[in-house]
Design brief:
By secondary structure, this protein is an all-beta fold. The chain is built from one helix and nine strands. The longest helix has 4 residues. The protein is globular and about 40 Å long. The protein binds calcium ion.
Length: 146
């Protein structure tokens, strides 16, 4: 779980390591020095993540690829404000979404770019992709099913 991976699919996710900085909106949430969650930069000042990621004092790292190597592209941002969805339920994780306002805006460059938010919901069966610092298990095509 050190390099960024991407996955796509409907029910079964198929993943692969990302090319470095191919997901410039990908953000990492840290509690002190511990990686806590992935997130998305949605403007120079705002980050979208899950409400359950607010476990203590957190900060945001942008422009990262390998979490354990300083690549010179990272931006470290303090959080000025966290806004948890008012309907968030920590027991069943309903409405598990949170906005983080950065204390200082991100410097946008080729490594740090906001993700445009969708203007509509995905249709059933529509191909979507996710990215994050998760575990990427190599699969054979016979594992993929249909
Ligand atoms: Ca790094």
């Amino acid at each position: 779980m050190q390099r960024l991976v991407a996955a796509w699919g409907s029910l079964k996710l198929r993943g692969h390591p990302c090319h470095p900085h191919a997901q410039p909106w990908q953000a990492a949430i840290f509690e002190r020095s511990k990686y806590n969650c992935g997130a998305s930069l949605i403007s120079s000042r705002w980050v979208l993540t899950a409400a359950h990621c607010l476990t203590g004092p957190i900060h945001v790292r942008l422009g990262d690829y390998n979490l354990y190597v300083r690549e010179g592209t990272e931006q470290y941002k303090a959080v000025a404000k966290s806004i948890i969805h008012p309907g968030y339920n920590c027991t069943d994780h309903d409405n598990d979404i949170m906005l983080l306002k950065l204390q200082n805006p991100a410097r946008l460059n080729r490594y740090v770019q906001p993700l445009g938010l969708a203007s509509r919901c995905a249709e059933p069966g529509e191909l979507c992709s996710v990215s994050g610092w998760g575990i990427c298990v190599k699969q054979t095509t016979s594992d993929w099913g249909d």
